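LOG
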Amino acid sequence: MPAEKPLWQAFLVFVAPMMVSNILQSLFGTINNIYLGQLIGVNALAAASAAFPLMFLFVAFVIGLGAGASILIGQAWGAGQRDKVKEIAAAALLATLVIGITISVFGGLFTRQLMIALATPANILDQATDYARIMMLGMPLTFAFLLSTSLLRGVGDTVTPLLGLAISTVLGLIITPALILGWTGLPPLGVTSAAIASAISTAVGMAWFVIHLIRRNHPLAPDAAMLRHLHVDLSLLGRILRLGIPTAIQIVTMSLAELALLGIVNGFGSDATAAYGAVNQVIGYAQFPAISIAISASVFGAQAIGRGDVARLGAIVRTALLLNLVLTGGLVALIYLFSRTVMGFFITDTAVLDLSQHLLHIVLWSSIVFGMAGIFSGTMRASGTVFVPTLLSVLAIALIEVPSAIVLSRHFGVTGVWYAWPITFCVMLLLQASYYRFVWRKKTITRLV
């Protein structure tokens, strides 16, 4: 974060590549699902979807680990402790590889039992097992790739993750149909094509990371200095986990709540379910700026704390809130303006399109509020204050979102479910902002490394 740049410019330079990265990740998943559904059939899509909850649980933990490590790296980077940056990265990488290899071995051996435990329908059990087994065998690489993107952001680098992800995404989108259709000279590989393509593209992306970072003498290059730190440091690992596990818990809690709400929506019929899926796709894209800005506030905050410039935290929060209003608010306004066209990308049936547009109008604006709550919690996390922000979010989800969806759906039908999101995000903002203003700002903020 160059000192001569205005803070808002530094934010934009940091946020823009991250937003594009988020879009690429979502497009990769969406297009892969289209490949499976269109080129193989609905059972192939169902088999991949059946494995998703298991994959998501593992990935959520690594996202949390990466979040914890990036806070420590941000502080060490702000303090100019280049060797400490490598030490933290090595500890996080070692933990990630151990976890990934463990999942790869045991998950690969007991994949079928795991899929049965998830109540996978019998007609897709074999396909789902094959798909999930390959995905789990590739977990060490997947975990290392995801962790690398988080660690790089900790030192203020969002361009390298974008380039690595672009290479991986483009390659994956070429390999998947080639394997499905037998263009490689091999027999068509069915649903496992997507899993194999994901493993290959991730391996290539990870190899590019290694070569690129070493050539640039990047602070996070996996060189001899980092390898010297590749040993078990329980104290450092404990700090990473203490910061990262709450983030993983919050991600899993949000996903469980989504499943609960989907169960409510399913009770109103297939049209409501289709509308739910389409609106969620649009909301996901609308929240990309909000999520990226919240992560940026956390990284900038960690670096400021590392430099001993705690007074700058207030300016970081104000700048992030303003950019969220402009960027997320601007995108939300555009989607409102062209809402029917946007929903038409996913829905063709007129009745379902009308319902989807109505539901989108109810919930879309709350993406701005969601972003504001994330900025407050992200800034507090940058100082190592993770338990209370996580607890506040989890309580809002468990005590507000799900209960209000249940109650309102009984009075207003499927529309009532969608009122639960704005209500929950507003409560989250009130709780996070209040704790930030009346408790956290009165604390003495010190470096963790």
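LOG (cont.) second protein
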Amino acid sequence: MNTPRAVPGSVVEPPDPSWRGQFVRLIGLATPIALSRLSLLLIVIEDIAFLGHVDSVALAHYGIANAVFMVLLLTGVGMSIGVAVLTSQNLGAGEGDAAATVFAVGLGHAVAMGLGFVLISFAGERFYLAIGHAPALAHGSAGVLAMLSFGLPALLAFTVASLFLEALGRPRVGLVVMLLANLVNIAANAVAMEMAVDPAEGVALASTLVRYAMAAAMLGYLLVTAQRLAIGHVEIARFAEVSRKLRRIGYAMGLAQGLESMAFSSLTIVSGYLGAAAVATFQVVMQFMGIAFMGAVGVSTATAVEVGRAVGRGDGAGLRRAGWSGFAVIALYMGVVAVFVLFSADWLAGLLSGDPAVVALAAPALTLVAIMLIPDGAQGVLMGALRGTGDAWVPTVLHLFAFLGVMVPGARLLAIEAGFGVPGLIGGTFLGVSVATVALALRFRVVTRREVRRL
């Protein structure tokens, strides 16, 4: 096993090899990451909460637009994950002075992707009409999608900066920025609701402006602290090499994230065939699923960083310990959340909607959500463990099968053909995440039996 060299200013130290030490490191890194991702999601929840107390039509426009927006965003996030993987593997090997180049290349990729997604969003109305939505719903949703998508270059730049700092062991910076951004977003939404002709478009534009402020804050922090972080200098001569490695991870992970997001967004689109009340109800349910899943995102990112550092050290035992520790931590966390949801479904439903019909539909659906939380979190963390090793394409194929091959058709069958409505969408989701958990666990077991190799 390689012993990591000391890097001036580096946060990497020889780790405690015990299981207890691994749990402490995981939880210490995962907690601020989870809170930061939760704060990122809270911007969407704040938007939905403002619109949910206006009318169900405005909420439906935002919900349908957000479904496509999240596919674009998460595809970009997946394409950017290589920044955290390469940085953590470099740090594990004691090569922290290569970090600046990884960040610079990753940032360039992110902004370029964001601009490309803005162009794609202009076809929103044609897309909604092509999949069968009513012209009024398609037109209203397309306007919101355009407003949201203008923020993608900034949001992906913020994501790259966050992943980079998390790999360096400094996740609290992103958390502080996000907490401040949420306060600003609440005020911006209030102004937008008063001034905008279309409340959904106004709220979307306000959140987009906040996202540009978030990106500026993170990039400003890195610019000021670059020397103290000891991340080296940008080496233009290494751009091609680093870009190739980032693409190797990014293409697969972007596709995996995009497929998963597309699958969940497809369920929102299916809910559109059940009526505006069903769309609004499913949005309430999905937001609480998203809140719970932020814990999984935090543990997944922390697990990927810990696995990546173990790979950099050539530490096979540490790699396995990091991956299975993440699995255990998320199972415990999701179990606690599931109990809370079971006893608080009515109260939770009322938080995001003032429509009695939506609350009446959402409360029983949230009870079903509690059942699927553990496998949903587990598959997310296992995916993080695999990406920390650099394993990319096989997990992507497994996601394709579980989410598009099992979850989407299963949910459509239960919701529409069997007539269960929104509860049927939740049932199909449970099938998909359960298949993903089993498949990814088996894959991680196979990968960890091989010789440890860096990217």
